[in-house]
């Protein structure tokens, strides 16, 4: 089972939620060879709850996952901490949505929760906690106190960072995981479909619950695959993302440009039919 632990459902945090764009992302994720993704949308993205309400209402429930055209979506979130850095959380839909509502007062830069308070909040819910791209510039997760780091469930081997410097990212991430005794799993960190598949976690078995996910992850019954053209995929995705955002900024319809028509794309029609 091929899983991407770190993905986003929108092109950018400040852009309006688009059902069509999200359908397109999910279809492309499946076409890239993925069986499941953790949708770890930024906690302060515009219309966060609408994104997850859409997943819950339109996806076919399968225990903790929601299925779109054969692709399993596991709910999650990416949260900034005051110290600098991002913390991933994955868990049941109700837990993720309630956590996001409770974080409402802390969504602006300068008001982010310190890690200790965030981890304390997470402890009230059945979520798994991950260190998101812990060695990216500006992040300070590795410097957190050991009593906080021991609460992590996994380390994010991040596709974007792998593309920029694979040797450094792998060395630091695996050493960090070994030091803490925590599994290192792979996430693309994509906002744009071209980036899917740059890196993935290959589990030996299939599952659709977080209990099973944690069991397989902790047992190390998986491997990580890095695409031979990961750097090209990430660079291309970044270029396309910037271009689509510029189209939006200039008043254009980036969806029409992306999908080559103003109406519903064939990909979206196919996904809706499957759902």
Q: Your description of this structure?
A:
It is built from 11 helices and 11 strands. The protein starts with a strand and ends with a helix. It has 275 residues and is an alpha/beta fold. The protein has a single domain (2-243), classed as Metal-dependent hydrolases (TIM Barrel), CATH 3.20.20.140. Strands 1, 2, 3, 4, 5, 6, 7, 8, 9, 10 and 11 form an 11-stranded mixed β-sheet that branches.
CATH topology-level name: TIM Barrel
Instruction: State the CATH superfamily name.
Output: Metal-dependent hydrolases
H and E order? EHEHEEEEHHEHEHHEEHEHHH
Count of distinct strands:
11
Report on the biggest sheet: 11 strands, mixed
Strand-pairing-aware structural class: alpha/beta
Question: Unreliable runs, pLDDT <50, ≥5 residues?
Answer: 261-275
Q: What is the CA-atom radius of gyration, in angstroms?
A: 18 Å
Strand content: 15-25%
Share of residues in helices: 40-55%
Shape: globular
* CATH class bucket: Alpha Beta
Number of helices: 11
Q: Please identify, by name, the CATH architecture.
A: Alpha-Beta Barrel
Distance between the termini: 21 Å
Number of domain units: 1
Global mean pLDDT: 92
């Amino acid at each position: 089972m091929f899983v991407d632990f770190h993905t986003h459902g929108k092109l950018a945090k400040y852009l309006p939620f688009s059902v069509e764009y999200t359908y397109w992302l999910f279809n492309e994720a499946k076409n890239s060879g993925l069986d499941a993704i953790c949708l770890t949308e930024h906690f302060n993205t515009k219309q966060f709850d609408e994104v997850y309400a859409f997943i819950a209402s339109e996806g076919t429930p399968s225990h903790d996952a929601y299925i779109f055209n054969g692709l399993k979506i596991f709910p999650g979130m990416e949260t900034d901490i005051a110290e600098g850095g991002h913390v991933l959380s994955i868990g049941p839909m109700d837990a993720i949505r309630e956590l996001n509502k409770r974080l409402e007062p802390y969504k602006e830069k300068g008001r982010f929760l310190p890690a200790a308070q965030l981890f304390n909040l997470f402890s009230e819910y059945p979520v798994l906690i991950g260190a998101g791209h812990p060695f990216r510039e500006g992040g300070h997760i590795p410097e957190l106190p050991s009593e906080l780091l021991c609460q992590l469930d996994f380390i994010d081997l991040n596709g974007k960072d792998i593309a920029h410097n694979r040797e450094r990212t792998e060395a630091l991430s695996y050493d960090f995981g070994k030091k803490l005794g925590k599994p290192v799993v792979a996430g693309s960190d994509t906002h744009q479909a071209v980036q899917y598949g740059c890196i993935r976690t290959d589990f030996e078995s299939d599952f659709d619950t977080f209990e099973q996910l944690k069991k397989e992850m902790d047992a190390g019954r998986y491997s990580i695959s890095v695409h031979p053209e990961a750097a090209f995929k990430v660079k291309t995705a970044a270029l396309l993302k910037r271009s689509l955002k510029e189209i939006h900024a200039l008043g254009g319809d980036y969806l029409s440009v992306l999908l080559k028509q103003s109406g519903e794309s064939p990909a979206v029609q196919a996904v809706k039919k499957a759902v």
